[in-house]
């Protein structure tokens, strides 16, 4: 997907490790990309890529060319790029580029070999320690100023964009396929690099190693990232990647060495299928769930669950009663869009959600606790393709454990927001409002819509019925999604207008998701197993067989002939329809246009809310994915998706 300029491309890259007079260490890398056709240029200045018009065209063309890109992500990119603005933090160059003066940074190699780099942050001069050739110079002694502070250090001027540059304290410099001796002699050197200790960026959901083992015939080195979370986000070149310095230790020819390395790590993470993309959050979410609901009982866990001194309580009993029923549902896996909504609502305002990852565990526990109780009240035997929690643990234990999960928020908020009483109060109020709304929606859902459907069949007027069914979906799913997104926006410091717009959008996403969930009842749903297989998580017409009034059935009022509508309702009304009859009715609901009406309604809710939110957000990759989430919620599992 990421734009790579066609034709002859030339890179000049400067990597610097600097130390201020006060001893602070700085890492600075600047890239100049020059395309032979003159179509596009990019420069990296402290984590920002600057693009001219040609580069912007290349980005748009790359989005269209990428056949593997998820269609909802592509559609969101089209919308955001159509206005001519880049996806932040990319920026537009101030004018026409000539030479290596990009208007925001200038790179000059003077006749005496001095390398001069000028940026808005300061000026640096590098004196070559080793020979300067057509491929640059592997070691410079650098002095100058950055942000008004005097700095000095070392640098590497490279006529490439290679992923690895190492300065060892014994004078050797090492790249992927070439080393340079202290005397400046080039020596062929093939190195292997194996990463470990992965970290997932909550801004892009790309995963990177933060520690590496580097080996060759003479080298055995360990590289530990100085800036393990320094992800450089851009639409040009290879897209988002980890970009920073690492400390080096190990041996060379059996002798101890230390040093510094520059690493440019490009993840093998394409946005192929949207659900798989959201699934990248699963490991982080599950780790946070386990921190709150651990695998094994303990005194600490019991006290944390109880919020009081747990002396005398049987820890194993507490674990079996409160933790295991909820973990039973959590461990079966889910779609993950609700947890994404929470961190995205923080990230899209430019605030890192890393300090607030415990909220991801809270969202999953609250949602799973709700499912546990919902399955009891609906009498559902299965959840996520496995026996429902009440089937395994009993009804009483399931109800108690499910409702207890709602209080996970109270265990986390004081820890992540220890110094802001006002913000904590708003978070609690937002959460409790969603819990209240959810219980209202569930109350109406338990009562059902049979009387309203009877009235609609008798009169041919489905407006009251649709309002009632829609209201249940909004209160049960839309309002919780709204609450957790608003909490993310509040943490980011968004103003009231933006918090409300975020809430409206994610409420619409939740409503659309449930409308399409009702639609998927017409065809059944499958989900992945832990072993990589596929299992049925919802059978065809499961809700219809239970006598539930779903959105397709409600939309069928006015679309089916009155006598046929009455016949359909008579078959499913009492929850006694057989498989064959339900399959026939499901096909009829598609054929009469009820399914299309559901898709159109879901899309309308999302698009209307997005039109208000979109101008209030900066153009970022998170914004792209948030928009794609709306497309996915409204149109998932549909065959004809935007190309």
Question: What report would you give on this structure?
Answer:
The protein is α+β, with helices and mostly antiparallel strands and 643 residues long. It has three domains: 9-265, Beta Barrel (AttH-like fold), CATH 2.40.370; 273-416, Farnesyl Diphosphate Synthase; 447-643, Farnesyl Diphosphate Synthase. The protein has 21 helices and 24 strands. The strands form four sheets. The chain has a ten-stranded mixed sheet with strand order 5-4-3-2-1-10-9-8-7-6. Strands 11, 12, 13, 14, 15, 16, 17, 18, 19 and 20 form a ten-stranded antiparallel sheet that branches. Strands 21-22 form a two-stranded antiparallel sheet. Helix 8 packs antiparallel against helix 11 and helix 13 (450-459) packs across helix 14. The chain is elongated and about 95 Å long. Residues 1-7, 37-46 and 639-643 have low confidence and may be disordered. Keywords: Magnesium, Metal-binding. This is Polyprenyl synthetase family protein. GO terms for molecular function: metal ion binding; prenyltransferase activity.
Provide keyphrases for this structure.
10-stranded antiparallel β-sheet, single chain, Farnesyl Diphosphate Synthase, 21 helices, 43% helix, AttH-like fold, 23% strand, 10-stranded mixed β-sheet, 3 domains, disordered C terminus, 643 residues, alpha+beta, elongated
